[in-house]
Each structure stands twice: as structure tokens, then as C-alpha cells.
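Appendix C: a fully annotated inverse folding record. The material below is reproduced so that readers can follow the format used throughout the book. The structure is listed first as C-alpha cells, followed by the designed sequence.
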């Protein structure tokens, strides 16, 4: 039995007041398009977040396990490159396992700054982290980093900055959005600072499709939970059983797409608005772009970032990149 550490204290909290999540608008707009679609950020209600954690434990979803293995293997190298007293900045405070590995590897990190759009999630995650790392300065910034965010005027301690963006979250963005996000992160770097970012690699369609359609049906439940959330929060009348989960590798666009496909002709309402779908018609719910190393290097370059080093697992499934201002 492990006892959770008591929550620690934040050295600062700054609310940049990101606009409230537009769940209703996004759903009504998305369902009105010829190819229906809903942005993947809406997966993550409490149930969706728990299901995502369960996905990372499945055999088929190699992504998280592979990245953690690379982090373990390169811990000393990262510590060497970051030096003593680094300031770690994490957009989208996510997995405590990954950030704990990084902070434990580093030589006396000076501070950790978490950024997240969800204030409650952010404060809990940052206070918990402060409780686990005694003596580490911990700051929290409530912001939507998918929109330009300047870190000016925030009480960020001096020291070499290391931005940590693991998980291949960058893959959720279409090329233009990925470039814009990298430009935002670049704006936080000064000469000598670095961005440590994880990106999943292109591999066989079979491995990729299995990773997004695991044999235990956890990813299917994660995808279908979006419909349950719509029914609950937006007064929807969707028969969830009339939909099935689909994961397809789109080689032309180098991405795994997740869809919810209607098993029969169906009609439902959301917030009083009527929608109809034909049997086989889909709602597109997620893109997970996959990158070759040259492709990712070119994407980074387009945002003014240079790959200084990269590390992959033995199978070449996943790569962590150390980027600096070009
Ligand atoms: C959290 C966005 C990195 O795209 O691999 C996992 C989300 N979706 N299984 C990914 C996800 C279905 C995941 N990211």
C-alpha cells in the first residue's frame, strides 16, 4: 500500500481566463457538417479521462509504455543536457507518471510550471505534484495553449527552461494547428532553452489500427462515451447502441482516424435540434497523426525549431525530440 502524499502549496497561480469550453457549440456545428465531426478534446469528461488511463494499460496501445521506456533509457542524458536548476514547463498537465520520471531524473530542478485549460484539474495536479516534490517551486497557469499564450509577466523563476510535451498530443492537431502550437511553444523559449516533445511514428496499418481498436474494447468505450456525454450534458436522445467504433489508418494523411458509425438509419435530437444519419454514415471524432523522423523534423523547422537530438525505442515505434530555437 502506498499512501498518497499530502497536497503541497503552489508558489503562484495565474488565471489567464481561457474561454469556456464550447461543448454545445462544437457538437451542434460538427453534427451539421456534411462529414459530421466533433473535436477530440471533448472526450475528456471524468469517465473519458478514466477510460483514457485504461487505454494506456492495454497491450494494444503501445504508445504510453513505449514513451516511458525511452524516458527511462535517456534519463541521465536528459539530466546532463538540462543541467542543474532547470525550470520545467508542462502545457496540458497530464500524466503524473511521466512528469515524475522527468523531475526525478533532473539535477535539482528549480521549478515546475503547469499549464492547463481546466482550472480544477490544473490546481489538483499541481498541488499533488508539489506534495510529491518537497522543495520544488510549483506554479500553475490556467490557459488554453491551443491559442497563442505569452508567458511574459508571469513570475517564472530564472533558469534554463525545459518545456515537456509528451504523449504524441501534437498528433491530435491537423498540420496547420500543429505548426501554430509549436510556434506558441517556441515563443516561450529563449536561446539555450529546449522543448522535449514526444511524437508517435508511422508503422504498419495493422499495429496502428489495433492500437486504436484494442481487443478489450476500451478504446471503443472511450469513443462511444462521447455520445453518452452528449446525451447527459446536451439533452441528447442518441441511441448509443446504434453506433459502432471505427479506427482506420489513413495513409494519405498519415493519421489514424476514429469514427462513430451508424449501424442503421437513425434520427436523434441534441439540445432540441434534429439530426439524421444514414446507415454507415460516421461522426469523425479524432485524428492521431503519425510522423517519420524527417517529417517531424520538417514540421519543427516550419515553426522555427531545430532538432538537436532524438531518441527512439528499439522497434522505432516512438520518438522523443530535443528541440531548440533554430
Ligand atoms: C492522448 C491524443 C495522444 O491520439 O494516441 C488514444 C488519444 N485516442 N486512443 C492518441 C487516444 C484513442 C491519444 N492522445
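Designed amino acids, in order:
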Amino acid at each position: 500500500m502506498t499512501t498518497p502524499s499530502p497536497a503541497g502549496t503552489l508558489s503562484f497561480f495565474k488565471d489567464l481566463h481561457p474561454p469556456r469550453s464550447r461543448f454545445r457549440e462544437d457538437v451542434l456545428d460538427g453534427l451539421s457538417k456534411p462529414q459530421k465531426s466533433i473535436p477530440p478534446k471533448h472526450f475528456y469528461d471524468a469517465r473519458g479521462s478514466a477510460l483514457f488511463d485504461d487505454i494506456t494499460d492495454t497491450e494494444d496501445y503501445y504508445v504510453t509504455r513505449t514513451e516511458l521506456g525511452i524516458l527511462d533509457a535517456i534519463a541521465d542524458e536528459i539530466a546532463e543536457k538540462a543541467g542543474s536548476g532547470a525550470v520545467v514547463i508542462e502545457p496540458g498537465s497530464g500524466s503524473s507518471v511521466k512528469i515524475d520520471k522527468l523531475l526525478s531524473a533532473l539535477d535539482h530542478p528549480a521549478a515546475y510550471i503547469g499549464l492547463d485549460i481546466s482550472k480544477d484539474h490544473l490546481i489538483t495536479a499541481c498541488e499533488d505534484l508539489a506534495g510529491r516534490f518537497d522543495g520544488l517551486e510549483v506554479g500553475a497557469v490556467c490557459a488554453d495553449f491551443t491559442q497563442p499564450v505569452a508567458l511574459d509577466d508571469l513570475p517564472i523563476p530564472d533558469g534554463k527552461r525545459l518545456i515537456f510535451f509528451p504523449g504524441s498530443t501534437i498528433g491530435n492537431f491537423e498540420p496547420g494547428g500543429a505548426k501554430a502550437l509549436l510556434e506558441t511553444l517556441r515563443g516561450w523559449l529563449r536561446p539555450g532553452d529546449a522543448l522535449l516533445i514526444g511524437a508517435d511514428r508511422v508503422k504498419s496499418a495493422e499495429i496502428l489500427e489495433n492500437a486504436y481498436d484494442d481487443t478489450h474494447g476500451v478504446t471503443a468505450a472511450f469513443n462511444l462515451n462521447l455520445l453518452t456525454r452528449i446525451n447527459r450534458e446536451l439533452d441528447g436522445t442518441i441511441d448509443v447502441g446504434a453506433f459502432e467504433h471505427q479506427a482506420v489508418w489513413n495513409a494519405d494523411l498519415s493519421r489514424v482516424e476514429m469514427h462513430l458509425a451508424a449501424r442503421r438509419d437513425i434520427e436523434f435530437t441534441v439540445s432540441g435540434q434534429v439530426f439524421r444519419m444514414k446507415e454507415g454514415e460516421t461522426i469523425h471524432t479524432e485524428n492521431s497523426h503519425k510522423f517519420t523522423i524527417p517529417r517531424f523534423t520538417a514540421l519543427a523547422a516550419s515553426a522555427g525549431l531545430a532538432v538537436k537530438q532524438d531518441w527512439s525505442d528499439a522497434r522505432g515505434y516512438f520518438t522523443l525530440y530535443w528541440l531548440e530555437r533554430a
